[in-house]
Request: fold
Amino acid sequence: MSTRQLHLRSGMLGVLHIAVWCALLVGIVHGQASQDQVDEALSQKVRSVIGHLKEGVYGPATQEQTAEAEAGQLVPILEARFATSQDAVVKARVARALVDLVDKGNAYWDFLVQQAKLAIESDAPSTQCYSSTNCTGHAAYVVWARAHNAPQDSQAEMELQWLLEERVQGVFGDPRGISLLREALKSPNINVVWAGADGLTRALDKDSIPLIVEACKRFHGEEVPLISHTLRQFMRDPDARTAARAGEEQCVPPPPPLDPAENLAILKKTFLNTQDELDKARTASALISLGDKDDIYWDFLLRLETSLLEGEVSSAVKSDSQGKPIEWPSSDEAWAKQDRELNEMLTFVEIVDATRDPRGIRLLRRALSSPNSETQNIAASGLARAQDKDSVSLIIDVCKNAPPDVASVIAANALVYFDDPRAQSAADQYLSKDAAKFAREEKANGIGPLGPWPPK
Reply:
């Protein structure tokens, strides 16, 4: 995805879900897995692939095919689809599923490698799309599209950047892909580089930290933190944590000292002149953090967040009452809209965390009642960062009424972080023994929801 802002689709949402997923696999990752754990991990993958089959991720599927898949014929169905599919995107998704499920021979992996190399060697210009009508560097894309006889509109541009990322992501999670992901760091395209860095940090490949830092130095402006933020995934690895922090500092060195009064004046002017709501929210947050007492900045943030809640933050994946996906995949535009809205929410959480302002606390409590589970996750995490113990009972009520998967995520990202007996007891109720242990280890190691722990 190329409209990441803070990488919500594959980064920040990953932060919200990581405690539960890593708790499932923690024994496997550290080489301590029992056969039962290995079998359960495979069962989880099978269920996920069957779900994707139903949703059309691997191309249209009939009811008969999904029934056969559930009856144990999943691999033959995918093998046949790989052999006959003419759509390279679908074929790559099928190949990835087969590598995860059986990995027989090299044909499936070789296809994924071929697709990744197409992205890594692509000469597509480095652009970012915030929607199908708003892409930075669009003029460069138009020149490239004319030379390659490709569509010149922003929708096509956005789809191309997402395709480049997806091709690189096809080699995630496999040791054979490490060298390719390192090659991706050399690409001139920010989306390919980000995908490479994301894959390497997800794999906790600490030897790649210097390579990621070098990649950072080839980019400028907002592109740099897109790469450097991936290093935060090393916070889960005690042996690499220090090097990752140092690497991020090298990527994004502190700005030169600026006179406080001059800084405030610049930010105030920026706030008045900025039309983009997300940029305006970040500027307002910066002014509040610097101690500006003008209520105009809080009023703007409160209006923006209230509008989001009243309109119900978009969800690119439609789910049923149990939280199970019923419509997938959604349009690129829907993903972009969801990411933007959740980034606005995250900006609000950051300032509530920094100020503990009662106005912000009240709005986060209100957000707990949102029908959108990601909004609930972010709100609960924000209240945990603000250590608002009066919200503990409200968060527990959310868990009681949420699907099990959502409840476990909220427990891992919020309840565990309250030094309150009620919260700790509820966390034990909604998390497995291993997941609860893992979440508490994360807390002890200074890893919190949406940032380092404890909050500054």
Notes: Residues 105-251 form one domain. The chain has two domains: 105-251, 260-452. Residues 1-33, 313-329 have pLDDT under 50 and may be disordered. The two ends are 31 Å apart (CA to CA).
